[in-house]
Write a structure and sequence with these properties.
By secondary structure, this protein is of the alpha/beta class. It is built from 16 helices and eleven strands. The strands form two sheets. A nine-stranded mixed beta sheet has the order 1-2-4-3-5-6-9-10-11, with helices on both faces. Helix 7 runs parallel beside helix 13, helix 9 crosses helix 11 and helix 10 crosses helix 11.
Length: 499
């Protein structure tokens, strides 16, 4: 999930001890082979392979215990002159799943003629081992159906008890040591070990959404090992995280308003025919769900938060807007919330069989490791107020001022000291001139952030006029040709580009 995205069950129980006892002597090699997940039957299937890479559990202790990263590669169609490492975002998204799903699309890019494309599941994510596992599928379902919006003193106490319990489950089932070592700083070191294992003195890096944060921090720490860098859906690692959350909420509201305008032009729109009244009509539909959830299929119910989660999922992609319209129409007509719940499940990583991937738990753990952990109640209450004002579509109307502390406030204290490693000494090596892709109406990573990153890094900005989260390598010919030109030409592009 972008910063919101894009979220059990081997190894779930008591994983505090589930860290390999291998040592650093076993790191540094990848044995490529057939992908366990399968690669389909597309034209690129023969070029795709998977493997694992052992890396130190604690990058500050390279001779200590190791963990395992899952990796995947699309081999260059001709000779391999370079490697493009890709991270699809999240935090918590699987790079291996991304490559397996996008292999044919990636293989059609010109730069893959002479460049391998390599992805990885960051530590704690997907098929890497150990994984972050905090909650069972049953527990996640129960949490999602519980009312967490009551802002009475009793409601806040109950919500904090739940959040404290989530932190405790993460501590028990994943282990405090590992929870303290799943942050972006450690992932950056893993990327450099991946580079070395691939036999490259330098790599190219494409970072989507949260992946841009990995790329930018890698560029700061290892500038002499990065050749070219594409940032799509920029996350600014230097920005205030609280202000970033509010700006993101504002962007989601902007895209919601665009969806609402589009909906009101359609016959039978559940938000009415007047764009000026669409938000109020939406609130009339979803706010009652706080007290009166509606059936959502298979014994499940749709409450307010799941309705908002389903709405937010659709705001990431315009191709989901018709599904959101249908879900709201179902709700207005009394047909239940199954369609909206299907969108919410997509956001939360719940599969059709009722199992969850570990993206939601990984998203939480990485976010808590990176911080900030807000324990000051005045600051927490102010953030709640600002978020409600920035995105009224997600406001249940029950705000009273106070707000519960989130799970990160109760995170294991052992992870505070180890959550980040200070970057190494500054290098005198020249830094690459990045290519920045920014969508003008991106709900999760506001366009203004892309502009700021381009300004600060002296990068080339590609402006994509439209709606949606990220744009590169997704079929936009203008963007894909620009990315290809950049990766194939050391001099990059000549000035900003509009697509």
């Amino acid at each position: 999930m972008g910063p919101l995205l894009t979220a059990v069950m081997v190894g779930l129980l008591l994983c505090a001890g589930c860290v390999s006892t291998e040592h650093a002597a076993d790191t540094g090699a990848i044995e490529w082979g057939v992908c366990a997940q399968g690669v389909g039957t597309g034209p690129s299937a023969a070029r795709v392979e998977c493997g694992t890479l052992a890396v130190p559990l604690d990058p500050a202790k390279p001779q200590g215990r190791t963990i395992t990263l899952a990796v995947a590669r699309l081999r260059a169609s001709e000779r391999s002159d370079s490697t493009v490492v890709v991270n699809p975002g999240g935090p918590g998204a699987s790079g291996v799943d991304y490559l397996l799903g996008a292999a044919d699309r990636l293989a059609a890019q010109r730069f893959t003629t002479h460049s391998d494309v390599v992805t990885f599941d960051p530590r704690g994510v997907g098929a890497s081992a150990p994984t972050v596992r905090c909650r069972t599928a049953t527990e996640l379902d129960a949490e999602r159906e519980a009312d967490s919006g009551d802002r009475s003193p009793q409601g806040i106490a109950a919500a904090e008890a739940t959040n404290r319990g989530i932190a405790r489950k993460c501590s028990t089932r994943t282990g405090d040591e590992f929870l303290g070592l799943v942050g972006t700083s450690q992932v950056v070191d893993d990327v450099d070990r991946l580079r070395a294992a691939l036999g490259r003195s330098r790599i190219d890096f494409i970072g989507f959404s949260y992946g841009s944060k990995i790329a930018l921090e890698y560029e700061q720490r290892y500038p002499d090992r990065l050749f070219r860098m594409v940032i799509d859906g920029a996350v600014d690692p230097a920005a205030n995280p609280v202000d970033t959350s509010v700006a993101q909420a504002r962007s989601f509201q902007e895209v919601f308003d665009a969806f609402a305008r589009d909906c009101t032009r359609m016959p039978g729109c559940a938000l009415g025919a007047d764009p000026a009244g669409a938000l109020v009509q939406y609130q009339r539909l979803v706010r009652p769900l706080s007290q009166r959830p509606v059936p959502a299929g298979a014994g499940r119910t749709l409450d307010f938060q799941s309705a908002v989660d389903g709405t937010s999922m659709a705001l990431y992609r315009t191709d989901l807007w018709p599904t959101l319209r249908s879900g709201l129409a179902d709700l207005a007509a009394g047909r239940g919330g199954e369609t909206l719940m299907s969108l919410a499940d997509l956001l939360e990583g719940r599969g059709p069989g009722g199992t969850y991937d570990n993206s939601a738990d990984a998203y939480l753990a990485i976010g808590c490791a990176d911080g900030p952990r807000i324990t000051d109640r005045a600051a927490n209450d102010d953030l709640d107020r600002r978020l409600r004002a920035a995105a009224p579509y997600s406001d249940d109307g029950r705000g009273t001022g106070p707000a519960p502390l989130d799970p990160c406030a109760f995170w294991p204290p052992e992870s505070v000291a180890t959550a980040r490693l200070e970057p190494g000494a500054a290098s005198s090596a020249p830094t690459p001139t990045p290519l920045i892709v920014a969508v003008t109406h991106d709900p999760a990573t506001p366009y203004a952030v892309g502009e700021e990153i381009a300004r600060r890094t002296h990068g080339t900005l590609i402006t994509v006029d439209g709606y949606g989260h990220t744009a590169a390598l997704q079929g936009n010919r203008c963007v894909d040709e620009a990315v290809g030109d950049y990766l194939l030409n050391l001099d990059g592009l000549n000035g900003p580009l509009a697509c």
